[in-house]
Amino acid sequence: MARLRRFLDKIEPQFHKGGPYEKFYALYEMVDTFAYTPSEVTRGSPHVRDGIDLKRTMSFVVLATLPVLMVMLWNTGYQANSAMAALGMSSLDGWRGWILSTLGIGYDPNSVVGNMFHGLLYFLPMYITTLVAGGICEVIFAAVRNHEVNEGFLVSSMLYTLTLPPSTPLWMVALGIIFGVVIGKEVFGGTGKNFLNPALTGRAFLYFAYPASMSGDAVWNAIDGYTGATPLALAAMGGVEAIKEAGYTWTQTFVGYMPGSIGETSTLAILLGMAFLLYTRIASYRIVFGVFLGMFAMTLLFNLIGSDTNPMFGVPWYWHLTIGGIAFGMVFMATDPVSAAMTNTGRWVYGILIGVMAVLIRVVNPAFPEGIMLAILFANIFAPLIDHFVVQSNIKRRQKRSLAYERK
């Protein structure tokens, strides 16, 4: 590492203004800050708590996804191996089959190591594709604007990949992240200036542009030819009873023992990540609990109203939390510090709005069985307006207080 540091320091002047490679400074800076902590950190009181930098913030978010990644690898491989057993397949064709056969890992759904390695063979190509396609866009915009390549993309790329079904084609993975980076962030000026979550923007684009590849029973398992509805889809068709008849218990949906988008299945792993983000104060507890309160209250309202034709009216809040992506969106997407509300009161309103909208879309709108993605993007749009009203309310309250003090 010391040699790398000396090498980077030696070539750095060539990338500064006037140097032969000044147009590629963004690329040099990206490599330098990826390998070492940036020297520029926030300092001084009274506006900051400590000398935290963006790299440390983003690193904490990535660390928080580790429990999700571990369960995701196992569950993706388990669903694939179980599907192969159900279809009577003894091996896979292509490069994945060659690697598994060469290493002698096999396709036993009861093997934890085998499941995780099989899941890795689906996750890794998707994540590498996301890094390359989105990273190229980041570097191009940074070079043109003479800006730094921000570490925030590492988080966006990870979260974006975790929202995808395991069967997503790689060209579609690339197209989605390019749309998310360019349209969701860079056209507004880059990191810190975007009002939409880039990862969700890319995911939403794929959902509406290629709905057959993003929804339906055939997309949740990596094995071609195998279909299986997610618990959320089952609930939309027949409520909680349909989920139980399919063989799923609440504990299984809580742990992540079910098909779905690769990173959204395990509420347990997501809550572990939430605990870390709240402890380090990277995520706002007001947003997290606001989303939960909104989801809880709206679910209770629908439960009280009831319906003879729509079974989703009777789904309890604790099932809503574990089926679909509400937990993942609540912890990792809604808490994005750039696109969320900034004021403390506004964060409560913002979170509650997301929780209410997510359940509303799930229950009332038959076209979208999952509502958290659209709910967060909807709240992103209104976050500046929410903060505006909160600030104006504070100003009026202080003016009244000041007038009352002068009269005394």
TrEMBL record:
Q: One MF term from GO for this chain?
A: oxidoreductase activity, acting on NAD(P)H, quinone or similar compound as acceptor
The UniProt keywords, alphabetically, are: Cell inner membrane, Cell membrane, Flavoprotein, FMN, Ion transport, Membrane, NAD, Phosphoprotein, Sodium, Sodium transport, Translocase, Transmembrane, Transmembrane helix, Transport, Ubiquinone
Q: Mind telling me which Pfam families this protein's record contains?
A: NQR2_RnfD_RnfE
- Post-translational modification FMN phosphoryl threonine, affected residues: T230
Which InterPro entries does the entry link to? NqrB, NqrB/RnfD
Show the catalytic activity: a ubiquinone + n Na(+)(in) + NADH + H(+) = a ubiquinol + n Na(+)(out) + NAD(+)
* Cofactor section: FMN
Residues passing through the membrane, by range:
57-75, 95-113, 120-144, 164-183, 257-280, 287-305, 317-335, 347-365, 371-391
| Location within or outside the cell | Cell membrane
Q: How does it sit in the membrane?
A: Multi-pass membrane protein
One GO cellular component term noted in the UniProt record for this chain:
plasma membrane
EC number(s) on record?
7.2.1.1
Q: Name one GO biological process term.
A: transmembrane transport
The protein's job, in short, is:
NQR complex catalyzes the reduction of ubiquinone-1 to ubiquinol by two successive reactions, coupled with the transport of Na(+) ions from the cytoplasm to the periplasm. NqrA to NqrE are probably involved in the second step, the conversion of ubisemiquinone to ubiquinol.
Q: Please state which protein family the record places this protein in.
A: Belongs to the NqrB/RnfD family.
Which HAMAP family does UniProt cross-reference here?
NqrB (MF_00426)
Q: How does it assemble?
A: Composed of six subunits; NqrA, NqrB, NqrC, NqrD, NqrE and NqrF.
- UniProt protein name: Na(+)-translocating NADH-quinone reductase subunit B
